[in-house]
Amino acid sequence: MTVHGSWTRAAESAMLLGADGTLSQTIFAEMTALASRHGAVNLGQGFPDEDGPAEVLEAARQAISDGVNQYPPGIGLPVLREAIAQHQRRFYGLEVDPDTEVMVTAGATEAIAATILALTEPGDEVLTFSPFYDSYGAMIGLARAEHRTVPLRGPHFQPDHDELRAAVNDRTRIILINDPHNPTGSVFSRETLELVVELAHRHDAIIMTDEVYEHLVFDAHHVPIATLPGAAERTVSISSGGKTFNATGWKVGWLTAPAQLLQPILAVKQFLTYSNAAPFQPAIAAGLGLDDAFFAAASATLRRRRDALAEGLTAAGFAVQLPAAGYFIVADAAALGATDAHDFCRALPERAGVAAVPLTAFVHPEQRESVASLVRFAFCKRDEVIAEASERLLALRS
Ligand code: PMP
Ligand code: GLN
């Protein structure tokens, strides 16, 4: 039986469809499977290997005991929407109405999906930066929109402002930024954020911002684009409890947006999941209310792990640029002979007992050459796991 359907569009746009029509797994699933086959330390898929704060875990247990086990409202439980609104005020001075401008989603992934499906028509352009997180390409494809990209070039992975200006036009429906950025860990400058707002106004585009690493910034404070003058009125801001509270499997995400943008996104969410994660919603609400010391410690711990992994990678022969935020280091493996990052990562679990993901999975095929020796390593792992990976990677030198 030949199975037709728009899955091919998603798979093609996420670059998972082979020339012979076969569907491959996402790069994260592929490398996680390889890691377990070879007993490798998995620095590929970005998930922490220890639990988040005890209060948050306990709040989830309590919610289950208290019977918070049936469908919550599609827009999310009031306790979490309130907590999100308070979080926006506390950290960023942003005022959002918890009843009309906040919506809970099944991870940031559903917020991304619902926003793109709700706000684009076939043929509209969606602009992302490149490299880009895989679900952006897939959802733009499913929505039958056009995916344009502006490159982020190393070593600091910032966009060229002239290239950005040239890429936005009256067909641009959404400018999608990911700040802090996966996979590069870069943080946009204020000038770049200002230019995005200016271009969105000039071409009447919506700004969509994926800020799942908002609390994992190492040397500065996160600046949400929605805080810039003129931005909030046309911005959909997306985040998730997964990274901040080491709970990626709970899939509790959210978005904030003006009511007129949120309404159509909620309409789409009703038919994606309807609602999600009832007992985890109060737990994430408890997390958002933790004191400043928790948030400071989360980024300080991760910063220490970034530095340890950077040292290990450098000792093994990679060229490393320290990321400003997030879970990942991009390392250049050219000196270790890498000419095709995907091949390099397919071999790495067996060769060195460590798994990573190639940057080629985050760019369109015509841009693969520009990232051919770049590999992403996750450092959201326990200190001893990073030490073990660093030790193993030394084998690459011999
Ligand atoms: N956006 C980015 C940039 C991510 O890195 C991730 C997950 N690593 C997601 C979205 C998905 O978040 P969630 O697990 O909450 O769906
Ligand atoms: N976002 C995670 C990463 O970048 C992976 C999530 C997934 O497996 N889809 O590693």
Q: What would CATH call the homologous superfamily of the largest domain?
A: Type I PLP-dependent aspartate aminotransferase-like (Major domain)
Q: For the largest beta sheet, what order do the strands appear in spatially? A: 2-9-8-7-6-3-4-5
- The number of E-state strands comes to 14
Order of helices and strands: HHEHHEHEHEEHEHEEHEHHHEEHEEEH
| Helix percentage | 40-55%
Strand coverage percent:
15-25%
Please mark out the parts with pLDDT under 50 across 5 or more consecutive residues, or reply none: none
The number of domains is 2
CATH architecture annotation of the largest domain: 3-Layer(aba) Sandwich
- As for the CATH topology of the largest domain, it is Aspartate Aminotransferase, domain 2
Shape: globular
Major sheet: size, sense and barrel closure? 8 strands, mixed
What's the level 1 CATH class of the largest domain?
Alpha Beta
Describe this structure in words.
The protein has 398 residues and is of the alpha/beta class. The protein has two domains: 7-51 and 293-397, Alpha-Beta Complex (Aspartate Aminotransferase, domain 1); 54-288, Aspartate Aminotransferase, domain 2. Helix content is 41%, strand content 16%. It is built from 14 helices and 14 strands. The chain has helices at residues 7-13, 27-37, 54-65, 78-92, 107-119, 134-142, 161-167, 190-202, 241-244, 259-272, 280-288, 292-316, 341-352, 383-393; strands at residues 41-42, 102-106, 125-130, 146-153, 158-159, 172-178, 206-210, 235-240, 252-256, 319-320, 328-332, 354-355, 357-358, 374-378. The protein has an eight-stranded mixed sheet with strand order 2-9-8-7-6-3-4-5, sandwiched between helices. It has a four-stranded antiparallel sheet with strand order 10-11-14-13. A two-stranded parallel ribbon has the order 1-12. Helix 4 runs parallel beside helix 11. The longest helix has 25 residues, at 292-316. The chain is globular, with a radius of gyration of 20 Å. The protein starts with 6 loop residues before the first helix and ends in a 5-residue tail after the last helix. It binds 4'-deoxy-4'-aminopyridoxal-5'-phosphate (PMP) and glutamine. Residues 26, 28, 45-46, 182 line the site of glutamine (GLN).
